[in-house]
Amino acid sequence: MNDPLVTTAWLAGGLGDPQVQVVDATWYMPNEAGDGRADYAAGHVPGAVFFDIDAIADHATDLPHMLPSPDAFAEAAGALGLRREATVVVYDARGLFSAPRVWWTLRVMGFPEVFVLDGGLKLWRAEGRPLETAAPVPPATQLAPKFDPALVRDLEAVKAHLAQRSAQLVDARAAARFRGEAPEPRAGLRSGHMPGAANVPWSALVNEDGTLKSAAELAQAFAGVDLNAPVVTTCGSGVSAALLALGLARLGRADVAVYDGSWTEWGGRDDTAVVTGA
Fold first, then answer.
1. Which domains does the chain possess?
2. Residue 31's pLDDT is what?
3. Is-catalytic flag, 235?
C-alpha cells in the first residue's frame, strides 16, 4: 500500500488476522479535558493495545513526550507485543490527531509497515463497528533496537536548516499561535514562530468526519511548500507536526522529518529567534 492510511472497512476485514496489529494512540492537549487511557478503557477497536505517548518517552528531559532511546522503545513496544513483521494500524479517538505521532514514532524505530486508520475511532463508532472494553494481553516480543535518524530533527539541526536554508520548516499550529496572537497552551513559552517558517495548520488537513483530506485538497493546503525540496515539520510539542508529515506522505513525501522538541523547546529558550506576525 502506498497510501499511509487504511480505511475502516479494510481494518474491519483484518480483525483477527495475526498479521494485523492495532494500536490506540489517543492523546489530548494539556489545556483540553480528556484522558486517552480512560477513552481506551471505555471502548476501543477489538484487539487494540494502548500506546501512551507520555509514558513511552524520554523521561530524562522536561520536554513532553520526546522520543525515547531505541533501547527503551524496543522494551516498551515489545511489552505491547508489537512485531516489525506485522502490519500495524494506529488510530485515535478524535478521528485524526495524535495517531500520526505514533505512526511516525514506529517508523523512526524501524517498523516498515505502519498505517493510520482514516477517520479513527470517531468514524469507526459512527459506522457502528465493534468495540471492546477489555484490554488484550498479547505475548511480549523481543525487539532489536532500531532508529532512523533521517526522520527526526533536533534543535541544532533545525538551527542549521534555518541558517543555511537547507530545508523548509512547516509549522502545524493554529494561525493565531503561529503569528503570536494567541497564547501557547504550555506556560513559560514565548509567542510567535521560527524565522522563515511556513504555517499549515493541521486542522486544514482533516475533514469533519476525522478523515484525511484528498491528495488534491492536501496539495492546495501545502501550496506554499515546495514539495520537491526537503521539509521538516514542527508544532507545539511534536504531535500535530506528525500529522503534517502524514499529509505529505499521502502526497508522496514519506521522507519528511519531524522536529521532535518543536515549539516547546524552541519557544522556551532564550537563545532562539522568534518572529511574530504573518
1. 5-147 (3.40.250.10), 150-266 (3.40.250.10)
2. 80
3. yes
